[in-house]
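Customer ticket, subject: "Can you confirm the structure for RIP metalloprotease RseP?"

Message body: Hello, I'm evaluating your service for our small team and ran a test protein. I'd like someone to confirm that this is what the system normally returns, since I don't have a reference to compare against.
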Amino acid sequence: MTTPLAIVAAVLAISLLIIIHEAGHHLAARAFGMRVERFSVGFGPVLLRTRRSGTEFALSALPFGGYVKIAGMAPGEDVPETDAGAFANHPAWRRFLVILAGPAMNYVAAIAIAAACLVSVGLPDGDPSARIGALTPGMPAEKAGLAPGDRIVSVDGTPVATWLELVGQLQRRPGRTFPLEIERGEGAAAQRLTIPITPVDQSGIGRVGFRQHQILARSTSLGALHEAFDRTNGNIALQLKGFGAMFSGAQKPDVTGPVGIGKDLVRSAHEGKPAFLSLVWTISVVLAILNLFPIPALDGGRLVFLAYEIVTRRRANAKLEGVVNLVGAVALFALILGVTLFKDILGR
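Agent reply: Thanks for trying us out. I re-ran your input and got the following:
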């Protein structure tokens, strides 16, 4: 895939996942009789618009996601008690489900993406053997002449048979030069080579710059949905384990902003459809998880206030909720801006 096409694919993929999220809110609100005033695809100046069933559907100039505006949804908004279509006038459990529907749609979308991959291009799985995958440009693996598909036989004379053994041996040797014995090719044409390599030292851990080799998993159309469900739940468990390790301090935080995510999508698009769709699948999973975190300005933050109302049968103070969401939105924007500037762009 050419770079311009890869960039277009990356933008469309992220936008589609966000639109799917907002469609969850829209469909749930309409199902409960709430009035959806606008469903916008993109932000900024409106290019096209049409009105259906009381909702304005707009296509805006900046195609980065979109949003849904439901009448009476903003905390503290002045809503007449007689307005049956206003979000604020519906029972708390309905409002809870409308907010929950966004992350739920990302979860459903992830299952659908996984199932589609399993019956078509395949869903990449980590190869458990000591075989290397895509190389990181400019890192020692590329400089040493390693190639995707090479199988590492030994590291500094120590035999390795699995991916975990390989990673463990490399990480123990930061800044040291040592030989890698590799097998290149298959069957009778296979060659045994010895290549010297020097892992870079990243906080005391050796890094050489290659990812795990991938094998493509496929399924019949009858079993794909069930397998996609299991694989998506497994992906969720893996992501939650990673978040838990970061929050507990067991793992150094490795966050990526919008620019970094875009770069990863463009890179995966160059690698082929399976890699690209697999990353889109994972992003959909992460969107579902992150939006359920009890962070102000995200769906999870709203769900906390609604859960309080359901349990106590008392509405939270609207001004307090508005202030909390505003502060959360500012803090979240500052975090995204900081990560984008210092990590994605400057690489610090």
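A couple of notes from the result: The two ends are 29 Å apart (CA to CA). The first strand starts at residue 36 and ends at 52. Feel free to reply with more questions.
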